[in-house]
Amino acid sequence: MKEKRFGIDIDGTVTCPSSLIPFINESFALNITLEDIKQYDLAKALNIAPDAMREWFDQTEPAIYAASPLAVGADQILAKWQQQFHLLFISARRQHLLDITKQWFHDQQITYDHIELIGSHDKLDAAKKQQVDLFLEDKHDNAVMLAEELSIPVLLFNTPYNQDAAPENVIRVQNWHEADLWVNQWLKTGDIAPLLRS
After folding, report:
1. Which range marks the domain in which residue 150 is found?
2. Residue 49's CB: how many other CB atoms inside 10 A?
């Protein structure tokens, strides 16, 4: 019987964090990599006017989401977790993108118990409603807020744009395989300490 309920962000967590980069480079005649994105706010990170970035993102969002590559190992770990846990995908994507989102999950052969597109980065209410025991996220302030407000562990997928300090129940992981190792440790010991790296 499934007991634990995992809240899982989609973009930059299940999808590869560099998904936007080819679209940015083509649209803005740039030649950047993920390592160049040091802030979550793309307008600030790229020194592009916020209105121009917002308009571009609104137009390009469906194509980005349809073409986003899967993060390495996500399909294997999620398939394993699906047998053990409730997988509840909670995303800042807007509701009109639900069909594209579900099609992407179908194409990637990722099963889920729930997908919720809330149209906002504030995932606290959705996470409370879904009674999540653990959250997986790539946005630093989301991770901190969820960890502090819900008193749950949050796995923060390490990227160049989320390097600020975080409380101890926000645990940085490098990839999905490390996330799985951490979950196994947590289930066995109840300990939320980061993995010890040799």
Report:
1. 5-16+71-189
2. 9
